[in-house]
Amino acid sequence: MSGPPSPGTLYLVPAPLDFGCDGETALAEVLPEGTLRRAARLTHWICENAKSCRAYLKRIDALHALAAPLQQQHIAELPREVHKKGDHGGKDHASIDATALLAPLLAGHDMGLVSEAGMPAVADPGSSVVRAAHGMGARVVPLVGPVSLLLALAASGLNGQNFAFVGYLPQDAAERAQRMRQLEALALKTGQTQLFIETPYRNAALWQALLQALQPGTRLAVAAGLTLPQAEVQCRSVQQWRALGAPPPGKHVPVVFALGA
To answer: Which one of 9, 28, 207, 247 has the largest count of C-beta atoms within 10 Å of its C-beta?
Structure first.
C-alpha cells in the first residue's frame, strides 16, 4: 500500500509592476522566459485578488498556453485583512494559518503564489503561505522577476550594502513627520538607506511632507513607474529638490521612496 503523496512545490511567481497603471508592459520585457513557462504549467494558485490573478494568467496565456483553461484554474484568495497589514504576525500585522490554502500542495499539486505586482511576500502579503509550505516539508522556489524595492535601491545611488524597507508611513501628519525624522536620524547615523512606499493617490501628500520634514542635506530618491516606458528615478538632496520645485510623483504611478546620507 502506497503512502500519501509527497507535497508539491510552491512557486513564488512575480508579477509585472504595471498593476493599476494606465498602460501595460510587455511581459516578455520584464519576466524571463523560464518564469513565464513555469507559471503557464501551474493550475493551482493563491493570490491577493482572483480577478487580478485571472487577468495576469490571460496575459501569460497569450505567450504560453496555460496547462488548463482559465475557467478551470483553481484560484484561492488570501484573507482581506492581510492585504494591507501583511500576514507574518507580530505587532500591527495579521497572523493567519495558511495551511488550508495549501491543501492542493499537500495532495501533490504544484502551486503558484502571486501578488498583484512584484514578488509575493516582499512588500506584499504571502509570507504566511511560504511559512506554512515550509512547515509541510514542501519545496519553495522563487521565480525570477521584478522586485521594485531592489530596482529602486540600485538606481538611487544610496547605500545598497545596508538598507531597510519600512513599509508605509503613518497617515496622521504629526505621526508621519515624527516617523520621517526617526528614519532620517537612523540613516544619517548608520548610513542605512530607508525605503518606503505609499498608496499612489497619497504620493503628493507624502512628497510635500518629506520636503517639509527632512533636513536640507538629506538625500531623497524617488523611483516612479519602474519597468514602465515612463519610468523615472531621481535622487537629490532635499535642498536641491526644494530649489528645483519639482512636481510630486503622479497619483496613478507606483513609487518607491528612499532616503539616506
So the answer is: 207
